[in-house]
Specification:
single chain, mainly beta, 4-stranded antiparallel beta sheet, 4-stranded mixed beta sheet, 15 strands
Length: about 200
């Protein structure tokens, strides 16, 4: 590894990111990522793209995250927990300045349904997992990996009997079902569903 001189940066300034859901309700516990773009190397040498400095942390009970960041072009994104009714935010892109910035996390979509075998008989106690397909994540604009993570798996809630329900962000999902051992059925891919913003899915 070598040393890359990006030149002087402006002094860091206090920034508060306020994460809210639908109706302006505070979203506590959301992971906020601030990526401040950096200029290219000021010394001679190969061109290096995608330089940035990142500050991240979780919102407090009032939905606020505070940090000190050099002003300038940045990307800000908020990611909620998998069980939250609030989804991940769209990326905010612009010139970051001292003060407060509000980021909206829209409501997640609901996927619900029942599990039956080939003959239409109920299969209670089955595990239902939604797996986001690669290449269909909502664009975050973030550089680097590990937050959105294509192919992430989300387990649905068992509502009793053969019913299930789960909230997820918009995108394309493969719905897998693992019947209980007593059913004598294999794990199955039962559906590929496209979840559009504002539309729930029943299957």
């Amino acid at each position: 590894l070598g040393v890359i001189d990006v030149g002087p940066l402006p002094a860091a300034q206090p920034v508060t990111v306020k994460v809210v859901g639908q109706g302006g309700v505070a979203v506590p516990g959301a992971l906020v990522r601030i990526q401040r773009s950096l200029p290219g190397p000021s010394t001679s040498g190969p061109k290096v793209d995608g330089l940035y400095v990142e500050v991240h942390g979780f919102t407090n009970p009032e939905g606020l995250f505070q940090a000190s960041v050099p002003p300038g072009p940045a990307i800000v994104t908020a990611v909620t927990s998998p069980k939250s009714v609030h989804g991940r935010s769209a990326p905010w892109k612009g010139d970051l300045a001292a003060g407060e910035l509000t980021v909206l996390c829209p409501p997640r979509q609901t996927v619900q349904g029942v599990v039956e075998d080939y003959a239409g008989r109920e299969v209670p106690g089955a595990q239902v997992v939604l797996r986001r397909l690669n290449g269909t994540d909502v664009a975050t604009g973030l550089q680097g990996q590990g937050i959105v993570g294509g192919d992430e798996a989300i387990e649905a809630d068992d509502l009793g009997g053969n019913k299930f329900s789960v909230r997820v962000d918009p995108g394309t999902y493969a719905i897998w079902v693992q019947p209980p051992p007593s059913a004598g059925l294999p794990r199955m891919l039962v559906k590929v569903a496209q979840l559009d913003p504002g539309k729930d899915v029943t299957c």
